[in-house]
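Fold this complex.
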Amino acid sequence: MTALMAGIGGPLAVVVAWLLIGLAGLLRPQSTRIVARVLFPLGAAGGVALMACAFPALSADPISVTLPLGLPDLPFHLRLDALSAFFLVLLGVASAGISIFSAGYFRDGEGTAPGLLCLQYHVFLASMALVLMANDAYGFMVAWETMALSSYFLVTTQHRIAEIRSAGFLYLLLAHVGAISILLSFGVLQGGQWQFAFDAMRQAQLSPTWASAAFFLALFGFGAKAGLVPLHVWLPEAHPAAPSPVSALMSGVMLKTALYGVLRVSFDLLHAQLWWWGAVALAAGLFTALFGVVFAAVQTDMKRLLAYSSIENIGIAFAAFGLAILFHCSGMPALAALALAAMLYHSLNHALFKSLLFLATGSVLHATHERSLGKLGGLIRRMPWVAWTALIGTFAIAGLPPLNGFVSEWLLLQSFLFTPQLPQPFANMMIPLGAAALALTAALAAYVMVKFYGVVFLGQHREPQLAEARDCSVLERVGLVWLSVGCVLLGLVPAWVLLQIDRVNVLLLGSGLELQGRSVWALVPMSSERAAYSPIVFLLGAVLVVGLTVFGVRRLYHGRVRRAPAWDCGYPLQTSRMQDTAEGFGQPIRHIFEPFFSMRRELPTPFDKAPRYRVEVLDRFWAALYLPIARAVLRVAALVGRLQHGRIGIYLLYSFVTLIALLVIVL
Amino acid sequence: MTLPWSAQLIHLSAALLLLLSFAMLAQRRVRSLVNLFAAQGATLVVSTVIVAWSSGQHHLYYSAAMTLVLKVFLLPAILHRLIRRLEVQWDTETLVNIPTVLLIGLLVVIFSFGLAQPISQFADTVTRSTLGIAIAVVLLAFLMMITRRKAVSQVVGFLAMENGLFFAATSATYGMPMVVELGIALDVLVGVFILGIFFFQIREQFESLDLHHLETLKED
Amino acid sequence: MNAITVLTQLLSVLIGVALAPLFLGWVNQCRAWLSNRTAPSLLQPYRTIRKLLHKDAVIAEGASPLFRAVPYLLFGAMATAAAIVPSLSTALPFGKSADAIALVGLFATARVFIALAAMDIGTAFGTLGARREMMIGFLAEPALLMVVFTASLIVGSTELPVMAETLAGRAVAIYPSLAFAAVAFVMVLLAENARIPIDNPTTHLELTMIHEAMVLEYSARHLALIEWASALKLFNYACIGFALFLPWGLAPASAGAEGLLLAFGLLLLKLVVAGAGLALMETLSAKLRIFRAPEFLAMAFLLAVLGLLVRLLLRS
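Structure:
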């Protein structure tokens, strides 16, 4: 009981509070006012509280408790160590911003009744927290499935629309395929002891073959949740279907629980790793990253674009993870710690900026009722709060200094760069290619984000009704500002953040970056001769230079400014339809990466009465992998269907034969 | 570890050979292709002279001189003349687009280094790590032959392949016996002459040097 | 960090800002001579900037604050970059705060800013320019990063001053991988600074414009700042090239006033030669079709990666 008080009690209390808030929503299920004004802000307070009480646990020793409740004779085990604490902090920070935004966002007519929505939302939050704290396979799987189910109901909030129902079904299907794989992985991990507590799994000694089986089952299962190619297909369907705060929560936090699971299994539960796991994870991650960003560049729906960008970011995290295993197995602890820190840092960053951008699309969606990039434009003039906070998110996700996205990319590039000779010559040669792929991904991410921001917020309104768009409400602004401040702070004090993350390194790898005694102002992962980056000095220098420039120009210049219609090389007729559309902006990417896509084009001829241009970019994996599987399943189902006759007698015969067969086998 | 000067220079010329191979892979114009081939020959001459000088193997001077005459002056001149006579200054689009070819080339380089690693363990020369580059040059030339349509560029690819072999011989094992070298040189020369005659024949037959016309020759 | 290094730091920024238009003038002069035209004065860029600074600004209706802020941010970014790139001396205390990766990031930030500003007005040419610029950028940026990586694999550091110092200080050794990196770097330089095979800085044909299309709506002081920033970008790229491939002649941290003066002389000499070489390259090549540009840059990228590979492989 003392352990309960000592640290794990705080997060547990938040979980209970979230569940209670969710249930409270059921008291007045139709009242949007109570749900929005009282319950969601309380949920946000829970997020802040979780952040506050999980943070000290980063530096504390692991605490385990056994709860008095659970399945019969199988009480739930919980554990709070640095890894859990890190992801709990991530959950707290992101959910606080998303919840307070939701308070202003959800209004009548969302489909599901507000009270029910509140219940689903808070159960989702609580189950994610429990996933992060579970210390036995049963508890983990119960929380994991609760998370999948509650998020499924949230995705299908607008359940009257058929596409949304089918998107939700796809999500549920892949979530369960993944869950089965995770369950099997746990089955392998217990190593014949039939003890499903994680503590027992840590003791189990697995042969390399079984360890590999466990690792790849876990990689597959968690990869399905995270969106690792080719298991990514649910993301671009489910994210646009879900309400924006839910997309934010799923993309920003839920994908991270999958990363947590992979880390937990491969570094904590498995006692030894093999280097080629790292090579596989690295290759899969880089391919996912490149795939995601290339597809993001050709999307025309803003939420699909962000969903593909999530795939990209998950790919980057997996690449860092693979690199960490590779280094860890090659006896390079410092580099392994650097790569792992890059992964964790990137997860945290992605939780913030992706949530921010999804929330911003939510505001845009509410203000304009439009999700297609081709019909937006010019919103910076109508919705300044959303536009300027989204600008921060845009710069952060594009990996530009001095914001947070750059820091994690920097760390990852450094760990690529300072690879000395790896013992495996082949892996050694793949490292430069990996660095190149990462650099290309980062540069493409900037392309994607310029497209996203420029088409949505800049330029002229592409549709006349956009001129009536209104900025978001006060609570939404609070949520947006909270997340953007997070992006800026994580970008400015990376050395301090790295110091906190290093505790996770120590837990998982046995050694960290040895940052003690280094300055908190400069990020110096190895030695200051090798590489240093101190964003505050950098930013101050840049601000100073810009300030001097403004001052100097003001002195030289008399300051008269005239407003006139845009010049545009003197072309007389200019309409908003002459701007680049989203399709137009993606055209170079479509041209360059043509083999990646399968495209369906509809081109107008000069004689068309009503010319129409349409291009549809399809995912090759869908046609090459999923449709054959679906066909095979249908075929098998048809075979099984022959067993069905509708006559009770025959069914009883089946049972009888089965019973006899079982008895013969057992006896 | 600092290598002696000569080894450093050989490394540099190995890198230049590789660079020129990639340039050839990326080059669309047939004329520039021939010039690049001549430059590759010149690099080969330089590296051979350095090997000869540093290892004291005098017969390599003769091979260098032969390379100079044959690959820097004679063959490029013949090829230029052929191009002028045949009026095929331009190559059409390659079969695969060029960045993809270069990407494949990159993988080929990795592969050939992997291939050379166990072999070069046995060599005792200081420049054994250039063996991988030599193999890469051969394979890249092969790749160029695969991706081109025009007969002339395929001949250049064939000659560049021979360059790679020659470089492997000089840098990794300090040269082949003189007789072998002379034989190869003669083969190359005769080969070019024969191919030149073929060019005229092909053009007479199809009024083009585009090799995809040859596809019509197969029996259905 | 003492007063002298701070002074050196300030001096290198000031020299960069002051010399950049001169370098551009020199390149333009060489280009004119090579194409048998009467050359404009060496000081022409200064005159242009001065003229622009004294004009009335015209801003398109509906331009957001972002549009007005971008010229200052762009110039600021390039001047900050001049504080990181060693041009005169390797004693750059500010260089400790941002390494070569951050420098590449800084260039990317500048590019994103100018592309967003180009999209802000919502004209056909502005968005077209932004799209093309981002297309060039997404291939040139990783290529530049790979060039830097090749050098930093040799040196074991990503800080430009340290890299330049170490490369210059080594007993003269030949690094074949740097040959690849140098070729790739020149290609990136041409693309990133809107030079000829990719873009023509003096073009007035709308359909072929890239950089010019983005800044069409700017006038007066804003345009002056953008022009100046472009000149500064070219200067910075030249100095990165010197630091990586011709690192000799930079004053070390211990150098006094004479050392700096000598370094300044050498810098001028390098700039003269590099400018003439750049003009020669531009005169000899023809502008590529816009669809060939990705091919050109993909080539640069792959060459840089190849350099990295050669470095790893020839080391054995």
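Residues 155 and 192 of chain B are 8 Å apart (CA to CA).
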